[in-house]
Design goal:
By secondary structure, this protein is mostly helical. The protein has helices spanning about 25-35, 40-45, 50-70; strands at about 5-10, 20. It is globular, with a radius of gyration of 12 Å.
């Protein structure tokens, strides 16, 4: 999956946090919803501008960031 087509960082939007392209929904928000026990289907239902692919991209984004921290 090419997460760069789904996630972007824009100055002035959500304090520069990574967000899903074309939205103000931060990757961090989706990760928090998952951590709180929400399913991918529940997140997509609550945020119709997102798809299951966006939720998977959030997980991949977190995994890549963790991998970078582990190898630094």
């Amino acid at each position: 999956m090419d997460i760069t087509s789904l996630i972007e960082t824009r100055p002035g939007v959500r304090s520069g946090k990574p967000c899903f392209v074309g939205t103000r929904i931060a990757v961090y928000d989706v990760l928090e919803y998952l951590a709180s026990g929400m399913s991918s289907d529940e997140i997509v239902s609550d945020f119709p501008e997102l798809t299951a692919e966006h939720v998977r991209a959030a997980i991949e984004f977190a995994a890549l960031r963790e991998r970078r921290l582990a190898t630094a």
